[in-house]
Amino acid sequence: MTGDWIDVGALVEIPLRGARTIKAANGEEIAIFRTAGNRLYALVNRCPHKQGHLSQGIVHGEAVTCPLHNWRISLSTGEALGEDEGCVPTIPVRADAGRVLVSRVAMLAMLAAA
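RESULT FIELD:
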């Protein structure tokens, strides 16, 4: 842990157009996505529709498609796209010196909400 950010692993462990997951202390799973443009996003790893694991979905552009029912979720806002309605909580994430860091404050807020 580094100040306001928690180190959760190496950037190279997340493939382009892919994801990896981490567990929060409350058992919630966070999916960290890396786009083809090398941008990072972090979302709670469950679709608002049927709780599908978004980390198993297909990353395209700045969205991920849920593997269960093809809902498209914005990686930046967590909002369902198109005609679907719902939202997934997002977590601030960034890369620094080849490491992936998530917001400590956001992770603590998730624990408090559980």
